[in-house]
Design brief:
By secondary structure, this protein is an alpha/beta fold. The protein has one domain: 3-Layer(aba) Sandwich (Oxidized Rhodanese, domain 1), CATH 3.40.250. Helices cover about 30% and strands about 15% of the residues. Strands 1-5-4-2-3 form a five-stranded parallel β-sheet. α3 links the parallel β4 (about 60) and β5.
Length: about 110
């Protein structure tokens, strides 16, 4: 089953409308800079955190360039979840001039 993908332009619009974004990069990558509303769930922990991707509407998944988020999306789609991969990932978000937040999210 092909996984839907969106651009960072489309992601920005989706986030403005209240979309949920999950970042599956490693902790150090996330802390170094992430999309402001992104919730961190490292790729290796996705199987233990499937419920974090559940909610109204699709879960948008981002990583550095789109490869790890695609793997997460494929796994989550097999679990019956509606997921959308962010093509180009955080690198494309930064390259487009959009802001990132550094540090970890409050626990």
């Amino acid at each position: 089953m092909p996984i839907p993908e969106i651009s960072v332009d489309e992601l920005e619009t989706a986030l403005a409308a209240g979309a949920r974004l999950l970042d599956v990069r490693e902790t150090d990558e996330y802390v170094a800079g992430h999309v402001g509303s992104a919730v961190h769930i490292a790729l290796a922990t996705v199987p233990q955190n499937v419920d974090a991707f559940r909610g109204d509407g699709p879960a948008y998944v981002i990583c550095k360039a789109g490869g790890r988020s695609l793997k997460a999306c494929e796994f989550l789609a097999e679990q019956g979840l509606e997921v959308i991969n962010v093509a180009g990932g955080t690198m494309q978000w930064v390259a487009s001039g959009r802001p990132v937040v550094t540090g970890s999210a409050p626990e």
